[in-house]
Amino acid sequence: MNISVQIPSALRRHTSGTAKVSCTASNLDDLFSALDQQFPALKPHLRDESGQVRRFLNVYVNEEDIRFLGGASYAFKDGDEVLLVPSIAGGLSVPGETCPSRQSE
Amino acid sequence: MRYELRCRECHKSWGNAPKSICEDCFSPLEVFYDYDEVRASGDFTREKIAAGPPNIWRYSALLPLPETHEPTLPVGFTPLIKAPALGRAIGASNLLIKNDAVCLPTLSFKDRVVAVALANARSFGFDTVSCSSTGNLANATAAQAARHGFKCWIFIPADLEQAKILGTQVFGAKLVRVSGSYDQVNRLCSQIADEHNWGFVNVNLRPYYSEGSKTFGYEIAEQLGWRLPDNVVCPMAGGSLIIKIKKAFDELIELGLVEPKPVKFFGAQATGCSPISTAVKLGNTEIDPQKPSTIARSLAIGNPADGHYAIKTITKSGGWSEDVSDPEIVDAIQLLAETEGIFTETAGGVTVGCARKLYKQDRILPHETTVLCITGNGLKTTDALIGEYEAEQPIPAKLAEFEKLLTAEFELPTAVGA
Prior knowledge:
The complex is a heterodimer. Chain A is 18% helix and 22% strand. By secondary structure, chain A is α+β, with helices and mostly antiparallel strands. In chain A, strands 2-1-5-3-4 form a five-stranded mixed sheet, with helices on one face. Chain A is globular. Chain A starts with a strand and ends with a helix. Chain B has two domains: 80-106 and 213-385, 3-Layer(aba) Sandwich (Rossmann fold), CATH 3.40.50; 110-212, Rossmann fold (3-Layer(aba) Sandwich), CATH 3.40.50.1100. The interface between A and B is large, with 37 and 38 residues.
């Protein structure tokens, strides 16, 4: 399934600043593998040493917490929009820093 | 540096910045202090604290405050009072209430955390402050933003109590009502914090903000004559307050202000939103998120950010967690009001209701020194009591009419068929 993934700012240094990624995945495990492949530097930040999704990483599909949709067993549908959000969200780390979309306004 | 942010899990140091997660492992950041330096400075002793102002700033030496910070707003130092009548009603003989229903300036414990957050918002150079809130935090942020001259944006679930909405708007804050639960509002705010350079008190300023909760714990110990209680019963929404009271007690022990002593921590939730108490009861260490449905809207967080740590704090202390239904919450609000003259909001009803259960279950014994944390004011959640009291019919302004009313009041109801 073709889905899009929003990368939080805290992780964009591992995606060369890319905020939104398009990829093909059928479920969460698949998605993380696709991200691992595309951005090898991202992998240790998404999963711990044993390969488990990190405790404080929340995953939303079309604004719904994936745990309410079946979690790892949820089958992505074409056009799903996935959000990766730290459970205690990060935010910009440097005051004065604005995102590219704001700068272009 | 007296303090800095470090990852709670991997302990990597991140200095001092408006950020709340470790960019390596995604875990929360926590303020770590150099206790040797604090000890050597002599700034955190019983004497120094006693000589300080009668508010949270007496504990400034163990709060993450910029060197330049000069407090101008008295916050906290609320009463810790004995509650013998409530105690008799629920089977307790040594019960105390820490009453943040009268915390200034906005009548909830959130005034404490916002005071510390905004001190940091200023030093980090933000001109706009913001938060996602179930109401009390909205009030506290809006009020203190007004006083300190910040622009202010507040995000709340659309179904919030009217008093909490008005109590935010009156301070001139821009209020955004979001269709959905607090968890959805919170998720939205984390996305907004990624795009806008604002000081979100409970997002990018969260490590500093949550340290303000420690003052609740310092005050309990100081007001007990620099002793720790046996038990603390604490309402839980995001789960931060209970872990920060524990941190406050640990720091007081570390710095020698109180004798070391085990304290049991008991968490209180509404059954309609009980992800933490459910986990404690099932013996789980992780949260299974819930969709909240309870009148205790200030506790209606289905995916509590500090849930994992709240569970740990409770279970490691030998405590427990309970939850109560909406009718039990209303009943407990009335019980506290009628026995001790304290009108608390729904969260306080949750605390009192859960405490009653904990005494019944013998998890708390009658003679133990037990502190109930009352964190908010009943005037903000009067909706919960609608229908509980009859609308009194007016009487003519005549003495005879009053005497008639009085007689009727004491007349026994006539038995049916008599």
